[in-house]
Amino acid sequence: MQAWRVHRNGEPNEVMRLEETDRPTPGDGQVLLKVLAANINFPDALLCRGQYQVRPPLPFTPGVEICGETPDGRRVLATPALPNGGFAEYVVADEAALLPAPDVLDDAEAAALHIGYQTGWFGLHRRAHLQAGETLLVHAAAGGVGSAAVQLGKAVGAKVIGVVGGPEKAKTAHEVGCDLVIDRRSEDIVAAVKEFTDGRGADVVYDPVGGDAYVKSVKCIAFEGRVIVVGFASGVIPTPALNHALVKNYSIVGLHWGLYNTKDPAAVRACHEELTALAAQGVIKPLISERVALDGAAAAVQRVADGTSTGRIVVLAGGAR
User: Fold this and answer.
1) What string of H, E and C letters represents the secondary structure of the chain?
2) Residue 53: what pLDDT?
3) CA proximity to 43, closest of 60, 26, 25
4) What whole-number distance in Å separates Cα of residue 130 and Cα of residue 172?
5) What is Dmax (Cα atoms) for the chain?
6) Given pLDDT bands bounded at 50, 70 and 90, which one contains residue 320?
7) Closest CA to 154 of 139, 169, 171, 176
8) What is the model's pTM?
């Protein structure tokens, strides 16, 4: 089969190589899946760079989530078992963790429903307890993770402010449902949030960026607000001032969605059922900006790494619909 392999760490377009290799062999409790579509996530770039919290042995294939087909013909969502990730024609995955692909979504959309939307759902509902009528501030709102959070925030009845970088991304953020879009390159985030909320600030902040995004967030957080720390796409891990959290009475809440797969898999399945229902109602729909063939994966991962993409870029393998 064909698979993208990384033999040394570095930038994706420099270290990913498309090669002929053997199909992976399922172990106990695993199943071989034909890859239909593999969604690109920022962690795929971090894997290539050797900067992710998981460091698979070299050589490895990146690609942390797919829509695939089981030997008996079922369409499923899966997180492939590294080092044999999803940018390949076949993967193996834990059979117990497979989730049915929603019928209303095509393969690319289904592949993008998993990690980003699960992260958004657990962050907003289980960790932040977002309520209807509250104000949600989403950083990188035009990206894959951010756009999912925007849709989930609107689904619960929150007012959503999206922060983006540039007019093109601002247009995308409006299209996915933001009530207010702030271009961080030309606007004052803190002033705009306070004006929109009549001085109250944001009740919940969804931050996959870190760095300056976090610094600005805690300057416009509401009384009893919650900052959800999702990731550090900026490359800068902030150092929270706990005295500031005390004085302003807000919470800093971490979210590592992957832990739920081992600590509470039943919650992951229940979340997927809710996401499937929301997709069937048309309330959420993954924003797919590009569908690329397998041979275009390295360049596409680099675009995600560089932060130039909007929504999701999905790699299509043979037979995808």
Assistant:
1) CEEEEECCCCCHHHHEEEEECCCCCCCCCEEEEEEEEEECCHHHHHHHHCCCCCCCCCCEECCCEEEEECCCCCEEEECCCCCECCCECEEEEEHHHCEECCCCCCHHHHHCCCHHHHHHHHHHHHHCCCCCCCEEEEECCCEHHHHHHHHHHHHCCCEEEEEECCHHHHHHHHHCCCCEEEECCCCCHHHHHHHHCCCCCEEEEEECCCCHHHHHHCCCEEEEEEEEECCCCCCCCCCCCHHHHHHHCCEEEECCCHHHHHHCHHHHHHHHHHHHHHHHCCCCCCCEEEEEEHHHHHHHHHHHHHCCCCEEEEEECCCCC
2) 84
3) 60
4) 23
5) 60
6) low
7) 176
8) 0.93
Tokens (6 digits) for 67? 């829509």
Neighbours of 305 (CB within 10 A): 20
Cα–Cα distance, 101 to 77 (Å, whole number): 6
- Helix or strand run (H / E) with residue 296: none
**pLDDT tens by residue, 157-173:** 999 999 999 999 999 99
Give the Cβ contact number of residue 120 at 10 Å.
Answer: 30
**What are the tokens at 4?**
């993208």
Cβ atoms of 42 and 49 closer than 8 Å: no
Kindly report, residue by residue over 63-98, the tens digit of the pLDDT. Answer: 999 999 999 999 999 999 899 999 999 999 999 999
DSSP string, 43-56: HHHHHHHT-SSS-P
From residue 134, how far is each of 19, 96, 173, 230 by CA, in Å?
A: 50, 37, 19, 20
Answer yes or no: are the C-beta atoms of 206 and 230 closer than 8 Å.
yes
